[in-house]
Amino acid sequence: MDFVRAKDVAEAIAAKAERPDAEFLAGGTDLMVAVNLDDHRPQSVIGLRHVAELQQMDDTRIGAGVTWDRLERAPQRALAQAARTVGSPQIRAAGTIGGNVGTASPAGDGLAWIAALDAGIEVASVERGRRIVPWAEFFVGVKRTSLAADEMITAVVLPDEQIEAQEFAKVGSRNTMVISTVSCVVARVGSGYRVALGSVAPTPMRAFQAEEMLNDETSPSPAAIAEFGRLVAAEVRPITDHRSTEAYRRHAAGVLAGRLLERCLSS
Predict the structure, then answer these.
(1) In terms of residue numbers, what domain contains 21?
(2) Are 201 and 237 in contact (CB under 8 A)?
(3) Structural domain tally of the chain?
């Protein structure tokens, strides 16, 4: 196996241009599991752990190499809540938000937050330089993205809008170290609310009809909150699999959305 230890983004994307079949390695919590199970054996690996830019984080940008244990202390409340639910302490010390984005699992714990905030995914390549892809264009299917073959993920880019409140929760088969059955983020951005969900569609999704109904309310009543939850449950597109049923996921999505809305309203 050929290994390149990149020292910066330019070196990493240059190595990718020279080795089209190479794979990027940061935390390795997905790639190395596949390698250890002998399910996958890349011919070339480009190590990103020493790329300082990818580990930088501020109010507008989260580098792809920022680990979940750092995100537990992030100022973005819902992202910190999500980070605390990711795997074990060892996984959180290694796994990165960029890996979560690149894997693009519908159950990825950070993806609903990205959708709720309308964040963009910054990517880079030698041919196209840097570009920012809207989240809805980046995630295109189950573990599928629009990332070009020669590109790498460099950051999650946050919008300029003021986040007034944000809450995250998920349900699973147990309280800790679990892949989500349903995850949800409700955020108050400026004067409007947004709701995004994971594990209930092939990609992270927004419940736009529920948002529209809620944003027509000047002071949501208990009846309005209940209707909001009902609309969220109606909009999701879950499946039945080994972790849960379509009916339970639909019900849980509505319940989580209603509870998180109540938390936002009281904050």
Answers:
(1) 1-48
(2) yes
(3) 2
Q: What is the pLDDT of residues 207-264, one digit of tens each?
A: 999 999 999 998 999 999 999 999 999 999 999 999 999 999 999 999 999 999 999 9
What the block records as the tokens of 204 is: 């992270």
The DSSP bridge partners found for residue 44 are: 2
Give the model's pLDDT for residue 188. Answer: 96
**Backbone phi, then psi, for 142, in 5-degree steps?**
-65, 115
61 neighbors 68 (Cβ within 8 angstroms): no
Full-model pTM:
0.93
Report how far apart, in Å, the C-alpha atoms of 35 and of each of 1, 38, 39, 41, 248 are: 11, 5, 6, 6, 34
Q: Which of 125, 10, 263 is nearest to 133 (CA)?
A: 125
Q: Which residues have a Cβ under 8 Å from the Cβ of 136 and sit 6 or more positions away?
A: 115, 206
C-alpha pair distances (Å), 51 with each of 16, 34, 65, 100, 232? 15, 23, 8, 18, 40
Of the three residues 30, 48, 66, the one that is the final residue of a domain is 48
- Give the whole-angstrom CA distance, residue 62 versus residue 183: 21
Hey, which residues does 156 pair with through a beta bridge? 62, 121
Sign of CA dihedral 135, 138, 143, 148: negative
Of 177, 183, 175, the closest CA to residue 200 belongs to 183
Helix or strand or coil: residue 196? strand
Q: Under DSSP, is residue 214 helix (H, G, I), strand (E, B) or coil?
A: helix
Residue type, 86: V
Phi-psi domain of 87 (left: phi exceeds 0; alpha: psi -120 through 50; beta: other):
left
Residue 125 placed within a domain? no
Give burial (CB, 10 Å; 0-12/13-18/19+) of 175: exposed
Token reading at 200: 């209930």
Contact status, residue 94 vs residue 28, Cβ threshold 8 Å = yes
